[in-house]
Specification:
Strand content: under 5%
Radius of gyration: 21 Å
Number of domains: 1
Helix content: over 70%
Distance between the termini: 39 Å
Shape: globular
Number of strands: 0
Number of helices: 19
Structural class: mainly alpha
């Protein structure tokens, strides 16, 4: 992806479309560096062991039954989501190793006919949970700051607190409803899991008291939340010793993100500046003239969400389609901030449907606990449930907040 992005950056000045300075402008964008730095923070959670400690604490509290175990893994993701803008790092780096160990401890393995004992349920639950938590915070998924920036380019300001406030009610309801629905539809054969709490206690005992680097990581996490809520500054990990420069160098995913994200942000921005997005918005908006904005926006948001069947990346989807659909939504009369937020939320919720739609999907699906047909059927059903929760209940909440 990075190589393709560099080819795209090179092509824009070669074809005379942009100057070299414009073509490279994405690399100076503060949004890009926010995401890259936050990916280093994700590595800090994993390296210090703080992420695993948090997960085992929730397993100890909620893991006496399989349903509670699912909620515990989701709670871990929810706690980590505000500071880790990578659902792959959360679901793959922290949650997945623990859920796999728990499944195998109960004799539930992929490929030998025992997946339905427990592994299938907690795997699909962890996946659907991280989709929802990604939608709840501006800094919970890499494409979210991109959506906020594209909205900002159109004069719509989305703050960290504004995003979280709008998402908290429908998000928490989804996190309560979806695991219970999956528990009924993909019922685990093992429903009582007392050994999970024992395993969590043993792991916590093995880890011992929180170490200095874990306390500093926790302090950095709290500091980041305060600063993201009240200001644009970031704390540092290198001076505190939680990450060495070698760790930063070896975090190849962050550097790869810097390259292709900078290219994507630059191109998406110039699609708007050069007039393509305004032209598209006007053309589609004119075709919907006379249709009440509520119905027009409902249709647009559903098309935006379900077109993700054709896309294998949240960030690519946002970069290619978010600004255009936002422009059309505003053109048909949708309140601008409402349109920007709903499309941003849907930029995450759309990933629930397939085994390739977002980073953790191929990882969790590849574990083999859930077959392809079941993954797609449950993914479609969960997407419909989330749409109802976020548009109906969320719509009422957004009315209270004065978004429309």
């Amino acid at each position: 992806m990075g190589a393709v992005a560099l080819l795209g950056v090179t092509a824009t000045p070669l074809t005379g479309t942009l100057t070299i300075a414009d073509a490279l402008s994405g690399f100076q964008d503060t949004t890009i560096w926010l995401i890259v730095l936050a990916l280093f923070i994700a590595r800090g959670f994993i390296k210090t062991g703080l992420g695993s400690r948090i997960a085992y604490q929730f397993v100890r509290l909620l893991g006496k039954r399989t349903l509670g175990l699912g909620y515990g893994l989701i709670a871990t993701d929810l706690v980590l989501a505000p500071a880790i803008p990578s659902n792959t790092a959360r679901a793959g780096g922290v949650v997945f190793p623990i859920l796999r160990a728990l499944s195998e401890a109960y004799g539930s393995r992929a490929g030998d006919g025992t997946a339905r004992k427990m592994g299938a349920f907690i795997t699909i639950t962890a996946f659907q949970g991280t989709i929802v938590t990604s939608a709840m915070f501006l800094t919970a998924m890499a494409a979210n700051p991109l959506a906020a920036k594209l909205a900002g380019d159109m004069g719509i300001t989305i703050s960290w607190t504004g995003w979280a406030t709008a998402a908290i009610v429908p998000g928490m309801v989804s996190l309560l409803v979806v695991p219970y629905l999956l528990y009924k539809l993909l019922a685990p054969e093992i429903t009582s899991t007392p050994a999970a709490t024992r395993m969590a206690n043993e792991e916590l005992a093995r880890m011992g008291p929180m170490k200095a680097d874990e306390w500093m990581m926790l302090g950095t996490f709290v500091l980041l939340l305060v600063l993201w809520i009240f200001g644009p500054q970031l704390g540092g990990l290198l001076p505190l010793g939680m990450l060495a420069w070698k760790d930063v160098q070896q975090e190849t995913g962050a550097w790869d993100t810097l390259v292709w994200f900078a290219a994507l942000v630059m191109m998406a921005g110039f699609l708007n500046k050069l007039g393509l997005v305004p032209w598209f918005s006007k053309a589609v908006g004119d075709s919907l003239f006379g249709v009440p904005w509520t119905f027009a926006f409902l249709a647009l948001s559903l098309v935006y969400l379900y077109s993700h069947y054709l896309v294998a990346s949240n960030t690519a989807h946002v970069g290619a389609m978010y600004a255009a659909f936002l422009g059309v939504s505003i053109a048909v009369g949708t309140p601008p901030l409402l349109a920007a937020l709903v499309l941003a939320f849907f930029s995450n919720l759309m990933s629930s449907m397939t085994h390739y739609g977002t980073g953790p999907a191929p990882l969790l699906f590849g574990s083999g606990y859930v077959d392809l047909g079941t993954w797609w059927k449950l993914g479609l059903l969960v997407s419909l449930v989330n749409v109802v929760i976020w548009l109906v209940l969320g719509g009422l909440w957004w009315k209270v907040l004065g978004l429309w």
